[in-house]
Amino acid sequence: MKFFVYMVTCSDGTIYTGYTKNLLKRIEQHNSGSKGARYTKTRRPVKLSFVEIVQTQKDAMLRELELKRLPRQRKLDLINGVAE
């Protein structure tokens, strides 16, 4: 089963990171308020900015945590495709 680790850019310019099995549904949830994250609720609309595909939920959780710990500039580099 595939999982998606993603970053969205919120309307205020902040970046939210998460993971899901159904990427399109999750982005829709963030933008509609239906089961969206509390953080993005007041920062709509959100725009998908970055996606990675991993094979297991454990890998998705670990990668999400890794991305959340990155400084903002490093997240922007990933979003903009700057090589590691």
Can you give a write-up of this model?
- This protein is 40% helix and 25% strand.
- The protein has 84 residues and is of the alpha+beta class.
- It has a single domain, classed as GIY-YIG endonuclease (3-Layer(aba) Sandwich), CATH 3.40.1440.
- It starts with a strand and ends in a 5-residue tail after the last helix.
Runs in which pLDDT lies below 50 for 5 or more consecutive residues are none
- Annotated CATH homologous superfamily: GIY-YIG endonuclease
User: What is the helix content?
Assistant: 40-55%
- The CATH topology assignment is GIY-YIG endonuclease
Number of domains: 1
Walk across the major sheet and give the strand order.
2-1-3
The CATH C-level class name = Alpha Beta
Residue fraction in strands: 25-35%
CATH architecture: 3-Layer(aba) Sandwich
Succession of helices and strands: EEHHEHH
Question: Gyration radius, to the nearest Å?
Answer: 12 Å
* Backbone structural class: alpha+beta
The number of strands is 3
Average predicted local confidence, pLDDT: 95
